[in-house]
């Protein structure tokens, strides 16, 4: 069975600074996908960034980038130039390749951005 | 872009009643939808996978008779909480994936969730 672990329940960062959220996972699969989702106070789930396991290059989306270490089974999220609107819960998620499409979420990290 | 609509957004009802939550894919046909439950300040827990035209696949520990799932069309899945009790109070979220996209390229689209409060 796959597991996703987020070891930081809460993080805080000052506006315009950079913060990194940690995520590790455990799987015996070779084909899989990893995601970071953001859940603001509105509780809407918003996809931040995705990474295909077969790609060595780290994914980037504007101010968001990941550090994907496949051998270490680590998938951290870096947020640069933090903005007040980045305040939210962040969930790391795993999905096995194939047809199941089932997402397995980590426990989440609550990020607070201070002015 | 793809949108998933969930209704109602908030419902309060008395203990013992049944509550139905709808999840609709608005601009794509979803052969598979997912139902999650989220307790306050906790993660999303997958309850079941809803398959169009067939029975839902429930995760271990989820009561099938308590949480009835029906996926009668390619754009609608419903979750009915039967004989609801205060311990069923929670935030329920559905998601769906556009099957025309590759799994990792076109990931799940989430509804806005339903806050269920049982008095």
Please describe what this structure looks like:
The complex is a heterodimer of chains A (115) and B (119). In chain A, the strands form 3 sheets. In chain A, strands 2, 5, 6, 10, 11 and 12 form a 6-stranded mixed beta sheet that branches. A 4-stranded antiparallel beta sheet of chain A has the order 3-9-8-7, with no helix packed on it. Helices cover 0% and strands 53% of the residues of chain A. In chain A, strand 7 and strand 8 (64-69) form a beta hairpin. Chain A is an all-beta fold. Chain A is globular. Chain B is an all-beta fold and 119 residues long. Chain B has no helices and 11 strands. In chain B, strands 2, 4, 5, 6, 9, 10 and 11 form a 7-stranded mixed beta sheet that branches. Chain B has a 4-stranded antiparallel beta sheet with strand order 1-3-8-7, with no helix packed on it. Chain B starts with a strand and ends with a strand. The relative contact order of chain B is 0.32. At the A-B interface, strand 6 and strand 11 of A face strand 4, strand 5 and strand 9 of B.
